[in-house]
Design brief:
binds FE2/S2 (inorganic) cluster; alpha+beta; globular; 5-stranded mixed sheet; 7 strands; two-stranded antiparallel ribbon; Ubiquitin-like (UB roll)
């Protein structure tokens, strides 16, 4: 099973493949915050430290939003990601 490490929370969690990151964050009490849940507010911005290739690919709306925010290349919106392999993330500031 894929392992998600959230360095901000010092958490290591195992989840089913293709499990939405937002559901995982709700199952466990993580410090990743959510607002719109639709890729439009940026509340759930995370920084991917390792395993970016193990998150679901970015859709158009996420790419457009991150471009608008001038996000770093390793930043993603947690509400738009599904877990497909081991990944290490932290909360973006
Ligand atoms: S919760 Fe709004 S962009 Fe993810």
């Amino acid at each position: 099973m894929p392992k998600v490490t959230i360095t901000t929370d010092k958490l290591e969690l195992e989840v089913k493949e293709d499990y939405p990151l937002i559901d995982m964050c709700e199952d466990y009490d993580t410090s990743i915050l959510f607002g719109c849940r639709d890729g439009a507010c940026g509340a759930c911005m995370i920084r991917v430290k390792q395993g970016a290739e193990n998150l679901s690919p970015m859709e158009h709306n996420e790419r457009d939003f991150l471009d608008t925010m001038a996000a770093e290349p390793n930043e993603r919106l947690a509400c738009q990601c599904k877990v497909r392999g081991d990944v290490v993330i932290e909360v973006s500031e």
